[in-house]
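PROTEIN ENTRY
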Amino acid sequence: MMTLSDFLQTIRRSLVVLLVATLLGGGVGALTAAVSTPQYRSTGQVYVSVQPGAPDVSDLAQGNNAAQQKVNSYVQVIRSASVLQPVIDELRLDTTATELARKVVSTTTVDSVLLNISVTDEDPEEAARITAAVISSFSRVVTENLEKPTDGGASLVRIETVQPPLAPEEPSSPDLVQYVTLGLAFGLALGVGGALVRQTLDSKVRTRDDIARVTSVPVLGTIGFDATATTSPLVVHSDPRSPRAESFRSLRTNIQFVEADAQRRSFTITSALPSEGKSTTAANLAITMAESGASVVLVDADLRRPRIAQLMGIEGAAGLSDLLIGRTELDDVTIPWGHGNLSVLPAGQIPPNPSELLGSDAMLALIDQLTTEFDFAIFDAPPLLPVTDAAVLSRLTSGAVVISSVRRVSQKQLAAALDALRSIGSKTLGIVMTMVPTKDRGSYDTYYAADTDSHGAPEQGRRSRTPRTP
């Protein structure tokens, strides 16, 4: 069920659509008014009275009350065929009494003996002519038929014209302001309806609430969208004071609280789909952890489409795959990076059996060795839905951190990815939202939002080698 907060967020996300729909509605209203045939309304007013038999005060009062009661009935009589057919015959109109009745309007006010009779027509002169004929026919029908005494003589009801109908100078419709106003209102309503329908049909992950609908796994951090991420992916290194770099530091702090009592901490970084920012997140997270004084190894465990070597600017011809088949030693393929606390293990040659290698005893032994020599081991793994590599690897590490790109992955896809981990007994440590629109960052700040370089770091420097300068 949509809450008020959900409704307001939907409206905010659809402001452009609402604005366009509203303006289009107003434009349609203005266009409709411009192409509509002008209509002219001519109005006349009559006075209805009942003449008493004897002119004393009580009879005059009774006559006035009787006139007021009759006026309410005459409102309907004016639009009857008995009044309108003589008008058609007299003016030789090419219409019927029913059609003419649609052009005639009769009104009165409470406790009044005045009747307003109006006729609308495309010709102002014709409108006035028909109105005058309707008043005349109405007067005859009442005095000569409806209110004529049964014993003969003149009718006690008198109908006098007090305001003769005139040909109007300005059309009564179309009313440009009214048409535009209605068009704007209709366009706005249509836009709101469209936004709500779109929200109902669109199941993309956009907010924390969307993730909460899928899982109770905590959101460890949110990373803002950056159009320059493709050219400058290592924002923690290239622009360390930027808000996006600060987001990675907040993520580092939160992850350090995950499995805080564990002596050996290794994390599988994965996502539901490709291109959600998992490799960029893994690289920046590794750098921030190393900056805090911890010894960190970043392993490119995506043996299908490796990216870490390219991101870090290192040679990746030999690496993890060569190590797992016994072709080389760990010291020969790990490359120091930065200021000495970070080492990178590239993927190496792409093997024909990635899943088997990642789930092998050799991989388990390597993870044990890495977590012994380093404070943190971060594994960049393939996405969960296309292949099983990440799920297999996550069973061997402390657990998986799932990257969820805003507006890219659907709630159903995220749920399927989490189910893939759960089905084999892997632990999902948390979710990181990436590519969050900058305007929405304020509502997505994590609990531990401050820079925490001064606390939360584990024991430092189990491994130190000559670093590679990035």
